[in-house]
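Try this one yourself first.
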């Protein structure tokens, strides 16, 4: 049992430590860029963003907020993980995975900063309901999957011609971690699909009184 647990966490805690650091750094840089761009929006761009957010909250308050289909929410939730998972089977993941993680950080931070700029602390509450609650499960899962996929891509890039399959990083624990990440993302999806709309509607009613 102890060996199984150690093997399950081996990649992200020892071999995968450098790739986990790389993942965190690129996510942070993407998030910083998203915050700076959102906070630097001025003039007509800021007014348009304010109008968009107000219409979104008004729709949530009246119950007229358009609810995305299950397929749309599934795609929006799993596309990052599917891309990172597939890139882990190619040496191109060395470049593609950091780029994807950076983009994920950018869009997340831009959305949160936009709400904060428009509504202050109340905007942060809305942003937490919309993105923070699902992100409590999806972001750590993305970090874990990105770290091990980036490590696998690096191993592929360094693999010498003629090396056997034993040198490949795709073992049982690798796919167990993928399953763990998928389960975490599924839970985040359920929260986003069924809990988040209720919380956003309640928060909009308080903010727009």
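Now uncover the answer:
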């Amino acid at each position: 049992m102890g060996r199984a647990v150690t093997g399950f966490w081996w990649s992200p805690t020892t071999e995968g430590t450098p790739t986990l650091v790389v993942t965190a750094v690129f996510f942070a840089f993407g998030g910083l860029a998203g915050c700076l761009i959102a906070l630097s929006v001025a003039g007509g761009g800021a007014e348009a963003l304010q109008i968009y957010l107000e219409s979104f909250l008004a729709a949530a308050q009246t119950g007229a907020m358009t609810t995305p289909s299950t397929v749309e929410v599934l795609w929006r939730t799993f596309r990052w993980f599917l891309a990172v998972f597939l890139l882990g089977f190619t040496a191109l993941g060395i470049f593609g995975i950091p780029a994807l993680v950076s983009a994920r950080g950018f869009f997340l931070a831009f959305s949160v900063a936009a709400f904060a700029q428009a509504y202050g602390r109340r905007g942060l509450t809305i942003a937490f309901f919309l993105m923070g609650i699902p992100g409590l499960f999806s972001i750590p899962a993305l970090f874990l999957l990105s770290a091990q996929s980036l490590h696998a891509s690096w191993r592929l890039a360094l693999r010498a011609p003629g090396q056997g399959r034993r040198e490949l990083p795709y073992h049982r624990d690798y796919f167990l971690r993928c399953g763990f990440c998928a389960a975490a993302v599924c839970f985040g999806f359920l929260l986003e699909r069924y809990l988040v709309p209720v919380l956003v509607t309640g928060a909009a009613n308080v903010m727009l009184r």
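Discussion: The two ends are 56 Å apart (CA to CA). Residues 1-11 have pLDDT under 50 and may be disordered.
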